[in-house]
TrEMBL record:
GO terms for molecular function: interleukin-1 receptor activity. Keywords: Disulfide bond, Glycoprotein, Immunoglobulin domain, Membrane, Repeat, Signal, Transmembrane, Transmembrane helix. Residues 146-231, 273-378 form the Ig-like domain. Belongs to the interleukin-1 receptor family. This is Ig-like domain-containing protein. It comes from Salarias fasciatus. The keyword Ubl conjugation does not apply. Residues 1-18 form the signal peptide. The keyword Glycoprotein applies. Residues 89-104 have a biased composition (Basic and acidic residues). It comes from the Eukaryota. Residues 243-258 have a biased composition (Low complexity). Residues 73-104, 241-272 are annotated as: Disordered.
Amino acid sequence: MSCWVLLLVLGSIGGASGRPPLPALPVKDGCYLVTPEVEVFRVEGEAVILHFPFFARALEVRSIAPPAAGFLIRRENRTEEPSPQDGPGPRDPDQVQQDPDRVQQHRHQLWLLPARVSDSGEYTCTYRNETFCVRGSVTLHMLASPSVDVELLSYPVSAAPGDPLRLSCPSLGVFNRTDRPVQWFKDSNGTALGGAADGDRLLIPAVRTAHAGVYTCRLRVTVSQRQFTVSRVILLHVEGSDPETAATPPTDPPATADPGPPSSSVHTPVLQPPLILSPLNGSVWESPHGSGLEMSCVVLTDCRLADSTQVTWLVNGQSLETSYLDRKALQGWRRVSVRPDGCRLELRLMVSQISEEDQDVEVACVAHSAAGRREVVTRLRLEDSTFTWAVVGAAAACCFLAVVSVFLFVLFRPERKKRRSDYILARQSSSF
């Protein structure tokens, strides 16, 4: 009996001390499928490096692939029809090997040097061993020029008039940069912006409505001992009026013989600024070290302003694209739902891994429209596991002492001696 109790206690201790189980991955064609990567939109003629951060993270947290593991990247389908001058794209692993100068695989990265419109399509990265098969995917959209679809190609950034703003080139961490500085261009102007750069960032001391537009950052990078041009497009939205023109001068009313009573005027409903329902101002997002975190911002606004209402996340006062979280955070799509009290907008922010550098980082949700601007400030914090481990340790110690006490009692308890006199008296009593 004591052995069964000991096994039960050890099993409960092991389940309590271990980390919570990782979410199960869906299975298709014998492989576990990781969440698809964010779709990539790039311009033809530039260097493109396809990588799979969600896929790599899934292998890391599950300790599946060794450091020297091999991966297979292949092309599943096309998303655009190739032009005659493009030539064949990497449709399968054999074609990837047939064009080593332009298409190269480095572990779970695929280098397109340079990329063509015919490279558009879905790419999968697979790791397989005797036990596991894990697969990730990413969709690449190649555009012939930036003017084809600015909305898809650009990174949206929102700002309010009067706010300082620093724009930086996003998604460049996988490249080896040269010593040449980043060049910035606005709209279709071919002349680089000068005098407004703060290192590699474009500095706007005070945003005005005239600053809204399409900004392009361009720089030279070194890939496979060759230099290529890489560019990113940022679409800046400025909502509101400039401080100087925010107040309109009063106008004289038309002269009339009898203006009539004030109640005869037509009442125009006043639009209210958007209301942030969640999170609450000053709230804290907690997550264990090494775990992911998903944050959601829910905004209530007038349905007439739902399309023009901008909802964004700021990290330490900076946009997500210009903050340090850009390399491990992803902003989701905006969701709109119609409710009796108005329209609700939801924007999520997902962080792949929380570490010590994220402690007490300020994360703000900003909502602004033509009616006004609202902001809610929250913080990131690592969960303190000291109390949890103390409780688990105390419970384990109590269970262990109880099992040892029961075991020692059973082992050393004195044997009861049978009293023969009582037995004889019982026999005598039964004879009557």
